């Protein structure tokens, strides 16, 4: 199904960004998202250049009665940033970032990626919690919650969101903050793309010296059980500024390995003291932990998750690492089907864990995020990779605490998983949805059904 050319021409008279239809040379590239397993053909891709364009795009898609997908950095693995035969509002041209050094705030438009945001804020020795891969969009990550290297010291990304400008289903452009549309502001901090198209985000920034302590320690896969037992104990008592993830990976030499990756959000002296137990444990094969620029740390994992691969993920939360969980987790990796797939544990801790689960719409204030990341090259068989992810997921499910991160919901997870992810906040989110998007125009996401109103 297409959009008739007269409608496109009428839109073009008031739209200042780019309009890409299947007839344009840019279409094949433009419809692509990070996860190439998602292969959809929108009727039209609208790339706004400012908020008024977003208003025009929302009005256009409402008038056309077509499905509407919203895209920031295109990293959503489930592919909800695109659709077949509908409209995609692709915010990638909206890249303005302004930093207010005196107030320690930054305003960034919805097409900004974390590497761009980090560079702009670190120029002033400032930062806020962002994702661990530089190419990821600030938009989807922020609206879902946002964990990263700075969460222990400064909280989740949503905890640092001060305001958002958003185009609603009825076309109004409003600002949501603590004292303007406060109900909407609460919902945006974890409720995903359910409420409208966010055009810009305003964040609280923190002082962070451009040199921090970070890096990775690599252990042999044969020691993974001992390393993970140590890791599980360590993260229970490690200081807030030290955030440590643990991964099972296949190294460039083809050997499986267990690695610990960390960052310390503070001075290098304090950081070097805090990481000493990590560096002294066992007999690592490699240890790069030491002073590193924060901007570099933020790109440490970029190569582990490049664009252009087929990806299939499953995720859960656990309360902690029991011996039987570790056995199951390590055994599962022995059957991994692709050298690009990995398993990652990442705790929600420190300041991020001390926020009440209902203070924002993001309820997961503690525990360890468990990610099973299947990734393989186009042309390689899907089936063994899908099977490995699903089998691993089934094996770890008995250990799951019930929490689920909406930004890691898989392509084939149903709406009951979305409801599970919002947890105790689902009913309140339904009421906010009923107020701001009663017809569920923004439904291509981990969807919240508008609550019934009297
Ligand atoms: C390689 C990689 C690394 C990751 N690392 C982390 C990490 O360290 N921490 C973490 O918390 N998460 C991480 N994630 C998950 C990440 O939070 C999600 O993939 C997130 O959706 C990415 O945002 P995006 O804007 O790039 O994605 P998109 O696919 O563009 O958007 C995802 C969804 O967000 C909504 N959305 C996007 N833009 C807007 C907008 N302007 N207004 C309203 N709704 C919008 C839409 O519903 C859309 O479907 C990672 C993902 C990948 C692929």
Question: Which structural traits does this protein have?
Answer:
454 residues; alpha+beta; eight-stranded antiparallel β-sheet; five-stranded antiparallel β-sheet; 15 helices; 28% helix; 23% strand; globular; binds flavin-adenine dinucleotide
- Measured by DSSP, the beta-strand proportion falls in 15-25%
Indicate the percent of residues in helices. Answer: 25-40%
Query: What compounds sit in this structure?
Result: flavin-adenine dinucleotide
Instruction: Give the overall shape, derived from the CA principal axes.
Output: globular
Q: What do the pLDDT scores average to?
A: 97
Structural class estimated from helices and strands:
alpha+beta
Low-confidence stretches: none
* Total DSSP helices: 15
Through-space gap between termini:
37 Å
Sheet with the most strands, sense and barrel status: 8 strands, antiparallel
Gyration radius, rounded: 22 Å
Extended strand count: 19
- What assembly state would you assign to the polypeptide chains in this entry? single chain
Give structural notes:
- This protein has 454 residues and is of the alpha+beta class.
- Helices cover 28% and strands 23% of the residues.
- It is built from 15 helices and 19 strands.
- The strands form four sheets. Strands 12, 13, 14, 15, 16, 17, 18 and 19 form an eight-stranded antiparallel beta sheet that branches.
- Strand 8 and strand 9 form a beta hairpin.
- Helix 8 crosses helix 12 (323-333) and helix 12 (323-333) packs antiparallel against helix 13 (382-396).
- The radius of gyration is 22 Å and the shape is globular.
- The mean pLDDT is 97.
- Flavin-adenine dinucleotide (FAD) binds next to strand 3, helix 5 and strand 10.
- Residues 34, 70-77, 80-81, 91, 110, 131-133, 136-137, 139-141, 143-148, 192-193, 197-198, 305, 407, 445 line the site of flavin-adenine dinucleotide (FAD).
